[in-house]
Amino acid sequence: MSNILHKIQEELIPFDASLVAVSKTKPNKAIMDLYDQGQRIFGENKAQELQRKYEALPKDIEWHMIGHMQTNKVKYIAPFISLIHSVDSTKLLETINKEAAKNARKIAVLLQVKIANEDTKYGLDINEAKEIIDAYNRETLPNISVHGLMGMASFTDNMEQVEKEFNYLKKCYEELLPNVSKDAVNFTELSMGMSGDYPLALSCGSTMVRIGSKLFGARNY
Ligand SMILES: *Cc1c(COP(=O)(O)O)cnc(C)c1O
């Protein structure tokens, strides 16, 4: 396993990109194995599983939420979450703002843009993302910091299709950036790329890749 982690970390260096090790469904022991080799950012897609792992594991782990969230689950992760990649509605963002305030902290988020050519993927369209950024600029969300965009490409072997989708997310980022008047200096992240497509995502401008099965082996649900 160590070889895989270090190989991926080396591939990221020229792009100055960070690695989110996606540990969903994996036991604490597997997480500790990567932790002991220096990995500190882990991603999960279920709030309660994330909370359990947070409680059991070292406190210098940066936990990222990467999955679709129901608003009633935000409270489980609000006290400690480092980054929520998957904001796909105004209602969710308002809930995160409220729960962050309760915990006297600011929560960093990414807006998830729908880039896939599939009905099943969550995400905002570019106009909805613009509306959220307008609200953000008006300081109605003081406990939120918007750090960029996240996207999930179609589940397909057609790399030309995937490349089109990554390029589209990059274009959305460039189009939205001038709209961010509040805190624009933090609007820097483009979270895209998974085990099967991260080299392509990096070449399309990804700053953060989310890799699960390549690091941990296949998941059994
Ligand atoms: C599971 C998951 C990943 C990682 O997928 P792999 O193909 O195992 O690397 C990345 N992003 C999201 C949003 C996921 O749910």
Your description of this structure?
The chain is α/β, with parallel strands linked by helices and 221 residues long. The chain has 9 helices and 8 strands. The radius of gyration is 17 Å and the shape is globular. The two termini are 21 Å apart. The mean pLDDT is 95. The structure holds pyridoxal-5'-phosphate (PLP). Residues 22, 24, 45, 66-67, 152, 194-196, 210-214 line the site of pyridoxal-5'-phosphate.
Q: Indicate the radius of gyration in whole angstroms.
A: 17 Å
| Mean model confidence by pLDDT | 95
Could you give the order of strands across the largest sheet?
7-6-5-4-3-2-1-8
Q: Structural class given helices, strands, pairing?
A: alpha/beta
Helix content: 25-40%
Number of strands: 8
Which descriptor suits the 3D outline? globular
> Helix and strand succession?
HEHEHEHEHEHEHEHEH
- First CA to last CA: what distance? 21 Å
Q: What small molecules accompany the polymer chains?
A: pyridoxal-5'-phosphate
List descriptors:
single chain; 221 residues; alpha/beta; eight-stranded parallel beta sheet; 8 strands; 39% helix; binds pyridoxal-5'-phosphate
Secondary structure blueprint with pairings:
Layout: H1 2-12, E1 18-22, H2 28-35, E2 41-44, H3 47-56, E3 62-65, H4 74-77, E4 83-87, H5 90-102, E5 107-112, H6 126-137, E6 144-150, H7 159-176, E7 189-191, H8 198-203, E8 208-211, H9 213-216
Parallel strand pairs: 1-2, 1-8, 2-3, 3-4, 4-5, 5-6, 6-7
Bound molecules: pyridoxal-5'-phosphate.
Pyridoxal-5'-phosphate binds at residues 22, 24, 45, 66-67, 152, 194-196, 210-214.
